[in-house]
Write a structure and sequence with these properties.
The chain is mostly helical and 230 residues long. 67% of the residues lie in helices and 0% in strands.
Length: 230
């Protein structure tokens, strides 16, 4: 049974979702200089569908996540604000660059690459929702959540790799650029991936030092992003 606090957080999340879609609409079509951009509309519809489905899944699986992700919580590591700015800025830049690319005709992704982009786009959504469904500590900022009885989560995707949410975010960034048909937008998408890679290293070191049981977990689950690779 959901608590009043969880319901309030969900309502704020829905408001932010509607406002966020309006912002994405502007980020896409103002730089594009035209409403006549079918890939932009198709991608916007896919984004709305994915976010809506993700909200429904999380509300059923882990409603506490809406409270955890309601805002950047006190105690977030100071260095993480830099990574948050880089990742957030990179995600904003992807639709802007894609819109400018459509407007000025810098690049054009072939159809098969656009289709591959939607596969990565969908995989990125799954890679974000699944970790949040099993991990009540999946906050936007990095901190040791002593106020929420922070513990190691080693189920679901966390049994495979230690930072599955960052894998999902990286797939989503690259998939979004390709789904919009823009090779130029791969540049800010690559910046998102690079920022998440660096954040993974620093966060992992922090958790091994400060979160009880994490060092032992890292011995069991050896890889951060990709089994057998890293």
């Amino acid at each position: 049974m959901a608590t009043d606090r969880q319901r309030q957080a969900l309502r704020r999340g829905l408001v932010r979702l509607v406002a966020g879609m309006a912002v994405v609409l502007a980020l896409l079509f103002v730089p594009a200089g035209s409403w006549a951009w079918p890939p932009g509309w198709l991608c916007l519809a896919a984004l709305a569908l994915g976010l809506g489905a993700g909200l429904l899944v999380l509300w059923r699986a882990n409603p506490d996540i809406f409270v955890a992700r309601d805002r950047i919580q006190p105690g977030t590591k100071g260095w993480d604000y830099v990574f948050l700015a880089l990742v957030f800025g990179g995600f904003i830049a992807v639709p802007v660059v894609a819109g400018l690319d459509f407007r000025f005709g810098w690049t054009r992704a072939p159809g098969w690459l656009v289709a591959a982009g939607y596969v990565l786009f969908a995989a990125g959504f799954v890679g974000q929702v699944w970790p949040q469904a099993v991990n009540r500590h999946f906050e936007p900022g990095v901190r040791i959540q002593s106020d929420r009885r922070h513990r190691v989560v080693d189920t679901g995707p966390y049994a495979l790799v230690r930072h599955p949410g960052y894998v999902g975010g990286s797939l989503f960034a690259v998939g979004l650029a390709l789904a919009l048909g823009s090779l130029a937008a791969l540049l800010p998408a690559a910046a998102v991936v690079a920022a998440l890679l660096l954040r993974t290293v620093v966060e992992d070191q922090t958790l091994q030092r400060e979160l009880p049981g994490y060092a032992e977990y890292a011995l069991r689950v050896r890889f951060r992003w990709l089994p057998g690779v890293w």
